[in-house]
Write a structure and sequence with these properties.
Strand order of the largest sheet: 3-2-1-4-5-6
Number of helices: 12
Oligomer: single chain
Number of strands: 8
Order of helices and strands: EEEHEHEHHEHHHHHEEHHH
Length: 318
C-alpha cells in the first residue's frame, strides 16, 4: 500500500491522557483526555494541517476524542488493536511506550486509512450500552438457572426460583426499553420492522444487528457474512486441502444469529429449513448446517435493509 500524502495523526488513548504523534515530522503532544485537552489538541492539529486522525479502540476511553475531534471537522478512523500490533510486528518493533504507540497509530492511519473503520455514530453508543446491560442480565439468568438445579431444600430452591423470576422480569423490562429507545428514531424504527419481517429473526436478534452492525444495508453479501464472522475461509497449502472454517468478525452478532438459526430453520423460515435439510442430505454436520443458516440470515438482513423492503421468499437472495 502506498504512503498517503495526507498529514495524519495517531492518538494513543488512556483513561486520563492522550499521546499524539504525526505521520510526518517529529512533533508530539501530551494532553488530558477531557474537553479542555481535546480543544487544545484540535487547535494543535489544525495548525499542522492534519485532516485525518486515527485511534485504537480502547474500551470506550476513545469516545470523547472521537466525538470532539469529529465535531471539529477532522476525519476520524478507528483501528482494531490487532491492526496496530500487526504493523509493529512487521516493523520488528519491540519497544513500547505511549509516545511510540501514538507514532505507530499515525503510521497506520497514513498507510491504511481506507482499511480502518470510520468512527461510529455517537448515537449508537447509548444503544450499545443498554444492549450490553441486556446481555449481562441474560448471562446472569443462565447462571441463576444453573444454580437452581443444585438445590433440593424447599426454602433454598424457592429463593433461587425467585431470583430466576426477578431476572426474567428485568430482562423483559430492559428489552422493552431498548426497543423503545431504538424506535424513538424514525429511520431505525423502519429498519427494525424490516429486519423483523424476516421469519425466524425476532426483535431481540434484530436489535443486536441494528446496534452492533450499523453497516448493514451498505455491504455486499460477502462483506456482511465476513463482518459477522460467518464467512467460510479456505485452508489449503500445496497438496493439502483442509476443511473450510469461520473465524473473526463480531462475536456477539454471530452468537445471536447462531442462536436464532435453529428455531428459524426448524419452525419459522421454510427457506432456511430447505437449506438445512439440503446440507444434511449431503452429509454435512448439524453444526455446519446451522452456521450456513445463520450466514443466510445475515444475507437476508443485509438485503432487506439495502432494498428498504420487507423480506419475501421471491425477492430474497438465494
Amino acid at each position: 500500500m502506498m504512503q498517503s500524502n495526507t498529514v495524519c495523526a495517531g492518538i494513543d488513548v488512556a483513561k486520563a491522557w492522550l499521546d499524539v504523534a504525526l505521520s510526518k515530522g517529529a512533533a508530539r503532544l501530551h494532553v488530558s483526555n477531557d474537553v479542555a485537552g481535546l480543544a487544545q489538541l484540535a487547535a494543535w492539529l489544525a495548525a499542522r494541517g492534519v485532516v485525518r486522525v486515527g485511534l485504537e479502540a480502547s474500551g470506550g476511553y476513545e469516545r470523547l476524542a472521537l466525538t470532539q475531534l469529529r465535531a471539529a471537522g477532522l476525519e476520524m478512523r478507528l483501528f482494531q488493536p490487532r491492526q496496530v500490533k500487526a504493523l509493529a510486528d512487521f516493523q520488528l518493533r519491540r519497544a513500547k511506550t505511549d509516545a511510540l504507540d501514538a507514532a505507530l497509530i499515525a503510521a497506520c492511519t497514513a498507510l491504511a486509512s481506507e482499511a480502518a473503520r470510520p468512527a461510529p455514530d455517537p448515537a449508537i453508543w447509548a444503544l450499545a450500552e443498554r444492549l450490553t446491560l441486556l446481555e449481562q442480565i441474560e448471562e446472569d439468568l443462565v447462571r441463576a438457572k444453573t444454580r437452581r438445579e443444585a438445590f433440593r431444600q424447599p426454602d433454598l430452591k424457592a429463593r433461587q426460583d425467585a431470583e430466576v423470576a426477578r431476572l426474567k422480569a428485568l430482562r423483559r423490562a430492559e428489552l422493552k426499553a431498548l426497543a423503545a429507545q431504538v424506535r424513538a428514531e424514525p429511520a431505525r424504527a423502519v429498519n427494525l420492522d424490516l429486519l423483523c419481517s424476516i421469519p425466524g429473526l425476532g426483535e431481540r436478534t434484530a436489535l443486536t444487528l441494528l446496534i452492533l452492525m450499523p453497516e448493514l444495508g451498505s455491504l455486499s453479501r460477502e462483506q456482511a457474512a465476513s463482518l459477522a464472522g460467518l464467512a467460510p475461509f479456505d485452508d489449503r497449502s500445496g497438496k493439502r486441502v483442509g476443511q473450510q472454517y469461520i473465524q473473526g468478525g463480531r462475536a456477539r452478532v454471530r452468537r445471536s444469529l447462531y442462536a436464532a438459526a435453529l428455531p428459524a430453520a426448524f419452525k419459522w423460515n421454510p427457506a432456511l429449513g430447505r437449506l438445512y435439510n439440503r446440507l444434511r442430505d449431503k452429509g454435512r454436520e448439524h453444526k455446519l448446517a446451522l452456521v450456513a443458516c445463520a450466514r443466510k440470515m445475515i444475507v437476508y438482513a443485509n438485503a432487506v435493509l439495502e432494498r428498504q423492503a420487507p423480506w419475501t421468499p421471491e425477492t430474497s437472495p438465494t
